[in-house]
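Please produce the structure of this protein holding glycinamide ribonucleotide.
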Amino acid sequence: MSNKIAVLLSGNGSNLNAIINKGINVSFVVSNNPNAAGLTIAKKANIPTYTWKSLSRLEKEVSKLIIKHDLKLLVLAGFMRLLSKEFVNSLPPKFIINIHPAILPNFKGLNAIEQALENCAKYTGVTIHYVDEGIDTGSIIQQEKITIYKNDTIKSLQKRLQVVEHDLYPNVIEKILSKKLQYY
Ligand code: GAR
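Below is the modeled complex.
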């Protein structure tokens, strides 16, 4: 059984970096953003990269690559576009996972960290979930909470959240690949 994954990203790629550092085999990395720093991280690790700005083209090409590489799992790591319902439904259930910087169902969508601060939430955290056709609505796989301090800023909170993400995401991916984890 294949245990290959691919990563979709739009930005910095620090989660991709954590996944690579864990020794997980990444077959290719795709971005909608040609300037994403995550593409440089992939190239340095000798992972093939692809960029398509158009979402429909990206989905079409990724569908072909999934078959070509016999992928087991598609990992969204800071991919800031909503995949179409046609694309999501064309893949087996539980094939796509995402990481979100909040305790879902709280603070879905964009700017989750800002949303938590604006709402004076006492805590926030990280959620890893399966991707369905909604916005951050798929079944939750794992969550980890962190406390929000009075003097927290977007930057300070994001820094602490990313420490959690970089530990949690590679661990969950490993467990899914070894079939030790389905739902929580
Ligand atoms: C991560 O914090 C991830 O949780 C968030 O984007 C960041 C990407 O960081 N994702 C979302 O907000 C999805 N709605 P990275 O590019 O350094 O991995």
